[in-house]
UniProtKB/TrEMBL annotation:
Name of protein: Helix-turn-helix domain-containing protein
Keyword Transcription regulation: yes
Keyword annotations: DNA-binding, Transcription, Transcription regulation
Pfam families linked: DJ-1_PfpI (PF01965), HTH_18 (PF12833)
Organism: Streptomyces pactum
SMART domains associated with the record: HTH_ARAC
CDD domains with a match to the protein in the record: GATase1_AraC_1
Amino acid sequence: MHTVAILAPDGVSAFDLSIPCQVFAVARRPDGAPAYEVRVCAERSVTATAGALEPFRISAPYGMADALGADTVVVPGGHVDLVPHPDTIRVVREAAAAGARIASICTGAFVLAQAGLLNGRRATTHWRFAGRLADRFPEVEVDAAVLYVDEGQILTSAGIAAGIDLCLYMVRRDHGAAAAAEVARMVVMAPQRSGGQAQFMEHPDPGTDPESLAETLQWMRENLHRPLSVADIAAHAAFSRRSLARHFRAQTGTTPLRWLLNLRLQRVRELLETTDLPVSRIAAGTGFGSVETLRHHFSREVGTTPTAYRAAFRV
């Protein structure tokens, strides 16, 4: 049976910790048998946090070393300024070296980055802390606009509830869409949400901040069908390309072209789910130009083809 080890380091977010526990524990095979063996691993009784509540103590039935040998290791989030315990870093590194799938929820990405597992990879975290992750770990390509990132062995999710999206995605990848849909019904969650966390980000009021990109972001939304370049976007925002990159990362947590790609893919998914338009017309109308280009980006980011996605999620 596939074993999922969920780490509970000191200072863990109680909500982040509960997400993989719930999702993987209720997942079932077609014959009704549990799909996973779930272990919550901690070295001792640890402190858990939940917003502004007073921290409280929890204990786990497994030690941190019991995560070694698991097929999947999940690292929940916690306070971003809390230095991970060396044992936590060691376990994550050793598990990855042994071939385990490693996933983080929310600010758990900071632990993966500290362990060196995100170097040269795309990753995400809560949008509020994406800039801090990028500054602290410049080797990581931080994408703050998505709900989760699948880099093969290493997966990361965005803020808090996006951990549910990531866990459902892993169930779907392991056991198929039907198993993930059943878990989604149990937790009263959409099997796969469209869009990303960009819709939840705080942006400066364009009426009070002369450096706000709000108007340019809206212009990009309205011109998805055009082959927009960084130079085009910089010209609209009246910034140099270097200034555009700096302001864009500060206000969206990602680069102009990455933000544009995510926006285009979001629109593609909406059209696949709600219309019968040919994929060729969708590609042209969302700025991909050709079906081949759309398929390349869609398969890389969504993990399936446009045709298969439409078959699964057509409303």
